[in-house]
Amino acid sequence: MSDRLVVLGGGESGVGAAFLAFKKGIDVFLSDKNIIKSKFKKILIENDIDFEEGIHSHEIILKAKEVIKSPGIPNDLDIIKKISRKKIPIISEIEFAYRFTNANIIAVTGSNGKTTTTTLIYEILKSVNLNVGVAGNIGNSFSFLIALKKFDYIVLEISSFQLEHIKNFKPKIAIITNITKDHLERYNYNFQNYIDTKFNISKNQVGSDYLVYDSDDFITNSEIKIRTIKSKKIGLSFGKNMSENQVFTHKKTIYLHIKNNKLMIPIENLSLKGMHNTKNSMAAATVAQLLNIQNNIIKESLSNFQSINHRMEHVLTIQKVKYINDSKATNVNAVYYALDSMKNPTIWIVGGVDKGNEYEHLFSLVRQKVKAIVCLGIDNKKIIESFSSISDSIHETSSMMEAVSICYKLARPNDTVLLSPACSSFDLFENFEDRGNQFKDCVRKL
After folding, report:
1. Residue ranges making up the domain that contains 40
2. In what order do the strands lie in the sheet with 346-350?
3. Which of 66, 88, 110 is at the close of a domain?
4. Interval 206-256: pLDDT, tens
5. 93, 174, 308, 321: least buried by Cβ within 10 Å?
6. What whole-number percentage of the chain has pLDDT above 70?
7. Which of 31-40, 60-69, 257-266 is predicted with the least confidence, judged by mean pLDDT?
8. What average pLDDT does the segment 149-168 reach?
């Protein structure tokens, strides 16, 4: 065994970890069985970081002192099994980066609402000129962020994949937005495995830390009751458990009572609309109060916030037809929120790589709101089978231009065209951003 650190994966996360290791004087080797993108390869070459691509050299990897596994790499890969058998420690990039910062960490996970909540928190902290960075599943990797600059506060969006292989990572404030069935193909179609991974965000917390969670979310609330969690718990509720919660809604107003500081925010003043966004705003306001940010600034930030890319993003209105990009909706629950917020007859673009979706949760909304379904994927069979008894207007497409063209032909004034795929993007696109950007480009060409 050598003293070498091995990083598996040459994307944002892996190259970030290798770059941070290099900056800290650690002997590091990066391996990617695919070809590394030129922008990442440039970083490795310019910093003289040892790497390979198109192969995993087992003889080098299996001599590592420690292995950082990028989140996109499946746990059942042959090389991962061999590393485990040799008892070489495997850690996540989040765990590795955590070793090299003293920043106050605010970490957000959940099946839906992570990006919005993370961005809201970041914008509030930035508005009072705190030295704050944002990273993780959004923008830069955690490792890249701290390799480039020292921060007092870091807001992290963290997926379940990034919470695997956590040893000591401990956020000062952890947020679980909600837990619904997602990524089950990663967890042997065992929902509990996915839940357990999400709760890794709080497993190292102590009594002086905080866990903010949605107490109306059945799964999260049930788990909170049976787990030993040492941090202070703050539940968010839509008026149900008002006596138990420090943050709740009542008569269209959000009430917060944290650290003897009372704050009321009329829901109509929030810039982000919809019940799910009200919860995201409640979570962000809770964090801001925990950090002693002034009430007027919290209110102002939440009323001025602009929508984020690929999340219910209004692209254009053409001939009185609205086109909305919700490419980040990669599971059924996210689509539920999107369809629920539709006020006009909707043409729904759906499809991609299925993640064990249970589409029956959408049946009643599809009956009420959707006038046509446009499938966009290599394999649309499951979607067609699921909705054929509910909609008599289902169309198959295999490119974004084809999908948008069909929507244009089907749409009438005051309709809405909604890209809200419920699936991963990797069959036809690089990622959900690529899918959303292609949608926007195609709409602009109409």
Report:
1. 5-88
2. 313-318, 321-325, 416-419, 346-350, 370-376, 394-397
3. 88
4. 999 999 999 999 999 999 999 999 999 999 999 765 555 689 898 899 999
5. 308
6. 98
7. 257-266
8. 95
Structure tokens at 405: 């063209």
Tokens of 443: 């709409």
Ramachandran quadrant class, 161 (left: phi over 0; alpha: psi -120 to 50; beta: rest): alpha
Whole-number Cα distances in Å, 273 to 216, 270, 278, 342: 19, 7, 7, 11
pTM for this structure?
0.80
Q: Give the angle 408-410-411 at the CA atoms, nearest 5°.
A: 65
d(C-alpha 443, C-alpha 414), whole Å = 16
Tally the residues of the chain.
Answer: 446
Task: Answer for the pair 280, 113: CB distance below 8 angstroms, yes or no.
Answer: yes
- Mapped onto helix, strand or coil, the DSSP state of residue 269 is helix
Instruction: Answer whether 248's CB lies under 8 Å from 255's CB.
Output: yes
Same domain? For 185 and 279 the reply is yes
3 state DSSP class of 416? strand
Cβ density class 378-403: b for 16+ within 10 Å, e for less: eebeebbebbeebbeebbbbeebeeb
Q: Is 288 exposed, middle or buried (0-12, 13-18, 19+ CB in 10 A)?
A: buried
Share of the chain above pLDDT 90, in %: 77
Q: How many domains does the chain have?
A: 3
